[in-house]
Design goal:
heterodimer; A: 291 residues; mainly alpha; Four Helix Bundle (Hemerythrin (Met), subunit A); 2 domains; 73% helix; 0% strand; globular; B: 526 residues; Cytochrome C Oxidase, Chain A; 15 helices
Chain lengths: 291, 526
């Protein structure tokens, strides 16, 4: 079995990353506490993080190309394992919010509505008027926390968005075939198409949020329905944004001729990520919008 | 391609070496030093706690400060001491024992470590904030942390995010290293048992750290963005927080014990001069414990209110954990059976671990029984239980590991005399400290309370005396380590222990800066 003997030289990059995350964390928490320097510190940290990510990837790509590490099966497999496990950790992150949604719908609301035997006294004593109807327009205590005026329907924008993401899964595969065939035009055109679909998705999502806030009274603070709706779709949208940026970098690298039919894991890693984001959306569409 | 980095010269170069290092041995050393430093910080907090509890009445700190101390003691010990120390062992020993030149991602490795001091700077800063540090206990239950949490809670939340990123990156790195960088010819089942314990631990970390991150994020939005995840008025539930927290929390406690199992499984065969008994079953036992850890979490919440069937489910699954754990204990004992035993310091700590951890495990079994747990819940019995597992268990295993591998790390043996003194003082004092807590709990003394009724006075006095002996006994350890690191003790050969087994003993002591740049040959039985 061949193996890599490349030893990575010392690097200042992680330390920059530490300062970046530290400033973002402290800046964000300070902003929550109305400290005037909070937003500036947070933004500075974010800028530093962008610089760190840029320089880190630049270094790695340069190193891989100089030493032909992409043809090293050990390094290649290490990248594959690590990307796979990173996506597993992301799945667990989304599982928290899906778990929250299910717990609220299966246990909390039926108890509060007095539908489960053991919840009857809770129902009678706390809020006897409360009925468990999902989407939750009337919260248990509307005086304290008011619900939305209406729920978000599944068959308008969300269905269109499902179609967009599923299509983007197809286009990215055609781009992959382009790399296999050494047809860079096909690869680049379909990669660009995938990016456009991602951007279109994000545009529609922003549109939907604006509709929710202005017309439906559906806000992040609007009871359990609003909470889970925005937490799930919000984190998903954030991941789509990240994925789209990654796709753009890959397009740039495609045009620079970095990928060969045999060695193009960077593309594959981003494709895996994109499919993951796609699958999460299907879960969202079914459990947040539809059912 | 191989780069040789000459030894750095001068102060700036020295600082640069440690800040910019991509060497697994340097990073392992950093993890270990940071972990033990935080161990003393958190240990100092526990001595304040014990001093306060030495007698009934309020003598040292007010109740608010007391709550902050128990919270920070727990968080610092878990995230600052125990996890980093184990990560230090992983960094040093995994590449050495599987014949890899380094970790799979050396830059990422550096980041995983250096995020820790930054995260802890934020966490420790909460102690000095207006309104005091977080006072919720390390479990951060809502609504204590949401409606009633101090302002510093937000800084705790962001620091947990940073520590979580660090853990996930480290875990991904370790998994990639173990799955992919083993010396040619070393199959997964032939991988050293310490590495096996870490591959499973890394999997647990990847699975549950994001859960903690998501949970504290919801806590944050509940505090500042008007959500009601943990507020019944809006359709949420504080109980949801407990479920999510313990879904993270229970695998987390196995994250803190599985590498200990690995270390003990390396040490016991060496000093028994026999191979590990039932090696395959040991590996499956670790896997089994890891899988079970995901379906036992609600045993922390028996009194919080749940259906009878749910309680029975979590009671039985929890009791099931004792099967693989029992396999491990019996196998260690069977390894020693009819072995040519000698009791150098690492072996003493290992045997101490087996005995003490068994006690901690058995009290865990008592706590698993739902009807009995109604009496034990939130009493000192629980405190005694998990301190047996984490202090007399995890911590003793760490000392065992340090004494065992120190010759490989520094090239010098630790002083046997001081090591044995450290062992006996620690073992006796740990029992004086934590054994009485079981009786206190059974008699009804609640935990997380700065004052108590008169009838609990004697046992508490004992516990305080024990805690101070334990605390000061650790200074012997520090002195011993400094002496060894400065090379004032006996020099160690390549194979520091007569019957030691494994690739790390085939390289020089101290291990050269770069090892296994050419892969070692693997014999069939390694």
């Amino acid at each position: 079995m061949p193996r890599s003997t490349y030893l990575v030289p010392p690097t200042y990059l992680p330390l920059i990353g530490c300062f970046a995350l530290f400033s973002m964390a402290v800046g964000f928490a300070s902003w929550l506490h109305q400290l005037h320097y909070g937003p500036y510190l947070g933004m500075a940290g974010f800028a530093l993080l962008l610089f760190m990510i840029f320089d880190w990837f630049r270094t790695v790509i340069k190193e891989v190309r100089e030493h032909h590490l992409d043809t090293d099966p050990v390094i290649d497999l290490s990248y594959r394992w690590s990307m796979g496990w990173f996506i597993v950790s992301e799945m667990m992150f989304f599982l928290v919010f899906f778990g929250t949604l299910f717990f609220i719908r299966i246990f909390v609301l039926p108890y509060l509505g007095g539908e489960i035997d053991q919840g009857i006294m809770t129902h009678l004593i706390l809020w006897p008027d409360f009925k468990n109807i999902w989407p939750l327009l009337n919260t248990p205590d509307p005086q304290a926390i008011s619900g939305p005026k209406a729920a978000m329907g599944a068959w308008g924008i969300p269905a269109l968005n499902t179609l967009i993401l599923l299509t983007s899964g197809v286009t990215i595969t055609i781009a992959h075939w382009g790399i296999f065939k050494k047809n860079i035009t096909q690869a680049a055109v379909f990669q660009a198409l995938t990016i456009l679909l991602g951007l279109f998705f994000l545009y529609l999502q922003v549109h939907e949020y604006s509709d929710a806030y202005h017309n439906l009274g559906l806000t992040l603070g609007a009871g359990a329905y609003g909470n889970t709706f925005f937490m799930l779709t919000g984190f998903h949208g954030f991941h789509v944004t990240l994925g789209t940026l990654m796709l753009m970098v890959i397009l740039y690298r495609m045009l620079k001729g970095h990928f060969t039919p045999k060695h193009h894991f960077a593309f594959e890693a981003v494709a895996w990520y994109w499919h993951f984001v796609d699958v999460v959306w299907l879960g969202l569409f079914v459990f947040v919008y539809w059912l | 391609m191989s780069h040789d980095h000459p030894a750095p010269k001068g102060f700036i170069a020295y600082i640069q070496r440690w800040l910019f290092t991509t060497n697994h041995k340097d990073i392992g050393t950093l993890y270990l030093l940071f972990g033990f430093a935080m161990f003393f910080v958190a240990g100092f907090m526990s001595l304040i706690i014990r001093a306060q509890l030495a007698q009934p009445g309020m003598q040292l700190v007010n109740p608010a400060t007391y709550n902050v101390l128990i919270t920070m003691h727990g968080l610092t010990m878990i995230f600052g001491a125990l996890m980093p120390i184990f990560a230090g062992f992983a960094n040093w020993q995994i590449p050495l024992s599987i014949g890899a030149p380094d970790m799979a991602f050396p830059r990422l490795n550096n980041w995983s470590f250096w995020l820790l001091p930054f995260g802890f700077a934020i966490m420790m800063s909460t102690l000095f904030m207006e309104g005091g540090g977080p006072s919720t206990g390390w479990t951060m239950y809502a609504p204590l942390s949401t409606n009633y949490g101090p302002p510093s809670m937000d800084f705790l939340i962001v620091s947990i995010h940073i520590l979580g990123i660090s853990s996930i990156l480290a875990a991904i790195n370790i998994i990639a290293t173990l799955l992919n960088c083993r010396a040619p010819g070393m199959s997964l089942m032939n991988m050293p048992i310490f590495s096996w314990s870490w591959i499973v631990t890394a999997f647990l970390l990847i699975a549950v750290m994001p859960v903690l991150a998501g949970t504290v994020t919801m806590m944050l939005t509940d505090r500042h963005f008007g959500t009601s995840f943990f507020n019944v008025a809006g359709g949420g539930d504080p109980l949801l927080f407990q479920h999510l927290f313990w879904f993270f929390g229970h695998p987390e406690v196995y994250i803190l014990i599985l590498p200990a199992f690995g270390i003990i499984s390396e040490i016991v065969p060496t000093f028994s001069r026999k191979p590990l008994f039932g090696r395959t079953s040991m590996i499956y036992a670790i896997l089994c414990i890891a899988v079970l850890s995901f379906i036992v979490w609600a045993h922390h919440m028996f009194t919080a209110g749940m259906l009878l069937g749910t309680m029975l489910f979590f009671m039985y699954t929890t009791m099931l954990v004792s099967v693989p754990t029992g396999i491990k204990v019996f196998n260690w004992v069977a390894t020693m059976y009819r072995g040519a035993l000698t009791f150098e310091t690492p072996m003493l700590f290992a045997v101490g671990f087996i005995a003490m951890f068994t006690l901690g495990g058995l009290t865990g079994l008592m706590l698993a029984i739902a009807p009995a747990d109604f009496q034990y819940q939130d009493t000192y019995f629980v405190v005694g239980h998990f301190h047996y597992a984490l202090v007399a268990g995890t911590l003793l295993s760490m000392f065992a590991g340090v004494y065992y591998w120190m010759p490989k790390w520094t090239g010098y043996y630790c002083s046997e005399f001081m090591g044995k003194l450290h062992f006996w003082l620690s073992l006796i004092s740990v029992n004086i400290t934590f054994m009485p807590m079981h009786f206190l709990g059974l008699a009804g003394m609640p935990r997380r309370i700065p004052d108590y009724a008169l009838q609990f006075a004697d046992f508490n006095a004992w516990a305080t005396v024990g805690a101070f002996i334990f605390g000061f006994a650790q200074l012997i350890f520090v002195y011993n380590m400094i002496k060894t690191m400065r090379g004032k003790t006996e020099k160690a050969p390549k194979k520091a222990w007569e019957a030691a087994h494994g690739l790390e003993w085939t390289v020089a002591s101290p291990a050269p800066y770069h090892t296994f740049t050419n892969p070692p040959k693997i014999k069939a039985d390694t």
